[in-house]
Amino acid sequence: MSSFNSSGHKQRGWFIFLAFLLVPEIAWAQKKNSNPPPPPRPAPQPQRQQPAPQRQQPSYQQRQQPSYPQRQQPSYQQRQQPSYPQRQQPSYPQRQQPSYPQRQQPSYQQRQQPSYPQRQQPQLQPGQRAPIQPGQRPPIQAGRQMRPPIAPPAFARQVKQPDGRSTYQANDGRKWEANREGRVTSFSKPGMEAHFDPNGRINHLRDDQRGITIDRHLHGDQRIITEKPDHTRVVSTGPSRGYVERPFNRNGQAYVQRTYVAGGVSYTSVYRTYQYQQVTIVQYVPAVYYPPGFYGWAYDPWGPRVVYAWGWNQDPWYGQYGYYFTPEPVYPSASLWLTDFLLAANLKLAYENQNADNSDQTPPAPSDKGAPSASITPEMKQAIAAEVQREIQQEKAETTNPVTPSDTEKGPPPPNQTAVPPALDPNQRVFIVSTNLDATNLDPPCELTPGDIITRIDDKPSDGNNVRVMVMNTKPADCRPGSMPSIQISDLQEMHNSFRQQIDHGLGTLAQNQGKDGLPAAPDATPNPVATSPLPPDSPMAVKTQLQWQAAGAHAAEQGVQVAAAGNRND
Q1: Is the dihedral of CA 149, 154, 155, 161 positive or negative?
Q2: What secondary structure does DSSP assign to 396-433, as a single string?
Q3: How far apart are alpha carbons 505 and 394 in whole angstroms?
Q4: Which helix (DSSP H) or strand (DSSP E) does residue 260 occupy?
Q5: Residue 342: helix, strand or coil by DSSP?
């Protein structure tokens, strides 16, 4: 009975579930059959699109922000800081440092160096030297650090001269000349010629292949000349001192332009060149001329005597030559002022030449050729001042017909073969030496240096192109006063050029400083440039570079002579 009830209950559940599923389906089918589908609707006609009316944006009134009264910040009174009395720092007495007695350093007696007996040299007659055999190297003179003198080679053919000298000839054209002691005094071969001093040092060298000529003076300084294929000359008168010379031509007249470098100063000068008895004369041409009134002021006495402070009393050159030259205390005229200007410039040059950095230079020793040198006398200064006045008058006369290389001014006609150079002018006798010169015709030879004073004796050249001069005032290591060396005309003309050039430099100094430093006022001193050159001046750096190249070439030339003259057999 119970099992029948449970099965009947399950069957009723299934009938109810099926009825729940079928009743909605039957209802949907009856509704579909009772409502037929509506007829199709006609297609809608296209309608014209009307613009949509613009929607008006509502306007809103701005809401007013309520205003609130500003809140007042309370003010507070600043609190006063209490003041406290400053605490006094206690003072303590300074502690005294104990003093100790200074310890005495013990004194030692200087140790005496033992003395050794001096080695005796062999006794020789005055003027006699130890003979040297061919092929033997002679000894070096004591105190000289240089190579031994050249000795004649043993294989060369010897030809003895009546005066005791000898000539040695090699088959390859080399030639040696030796003195009576057998020391070689000269060497030559095709394109080269050299002369030696008794210590084997070259004092003259000509090398045609390098185009170089070297002259070494007695005190060790040297003069080097290099000539290039375009006739440009480089002349060195010391370390970083010299000039570059370039030729040019204007209106049928030959000129040269020199760019000098000396003591850190560079300047350019123009010179006129011509021939005089197979000698090339180089004559200085002033760079500027002044109005005639200024030349009269420099020629005539100034009136009141002028006290002038030069400012070089503390210079080293004046300290060395103060015994020889003293400037005048007062100056009655420009000529005497210019005299001291010239002497000071040349003595400064002598000091620079002597102290130049030359490794093989031998310091000059005190002269043993005569009495000690004396200072320049007032009479000698007056003689120089007279020469200065003559040059001022000559330059004033040239203002009407200047000697100039300008295109617009032809100037005087070129001098001919008979024109006397200014160095041989009978009216000019006194010269101030401006460069180092050797007097080789004297026995023993001696040297003249800048600042020495000489007078010309001969008016015409003799013994080739030389003229005799007399030494008036010299320094101790130079030729003694009263001696009469021979000087070439070209060297004497260079002295005159330097004399004239330094006068122009002094006139320029007076023109700039007139009316100042105690100098009287002068009339119009405006310079008028006249000596123009079409060539641009060489820069100081270019001149220094060429002088350095020249020094290197001179060293190579001297080495070549030593090798060629050493006596190596090439035949």
Answers
A1: positive
A2: HHHTSS-----SS---SPPP-TTPPPGGG-TT--EEE-
A3: 16
A4: strand 253-262
A5: helix
What is the percentage of the chain residues whose pLDDT exceeds 90? 39
Residue whose pair of structure tokens reads 């204007």 in the numeric block: 250
CA angle 463, 243, 439 (to 5 degrees): 30
Q: How many CB atoms lie within 10 A of CB 95?
A: 6
Contact between residue 134 and residue 168 where contact means Cβ atoms under 8 Å apart = yes
Q: Which stretches within 205-362 are classed as H helix?
A: 292-299, 316-321, 334-354
Asked if the model's pLDDT at residue 454 lies above 90, the reply is yes
Q: Report the 10 Å Cβ neighbour count for 40.
A: 6
The more confident residue out of 277 and 411 is 277
Reported as a single tens digit per residue, the pLDDT across 14-69 is: 778 777 777 777 777 776 665 555 666 655 555 555 555 566 665 666 677 767 66
For residues 547 and 226, give the distance between their C-alpha atoms in angstroms, rounded to a whole number.
Answer: 10
* Alpha helix (H) residue ranges in 35-125: none
pLDDT tens digits, one per residue of 268-304: 999 999 998 888 999 999 999 999 999 999 999 998 8
Q: Which residues contact 33 (CB under 8 A, 6 or more apart)?
A: none
CA 387 centroid distance within chain: 33
Q: Please, what is the end-to-end C-alpha distance for the chain in angstroms?
A: 166
Tokens of 123: 């006794």
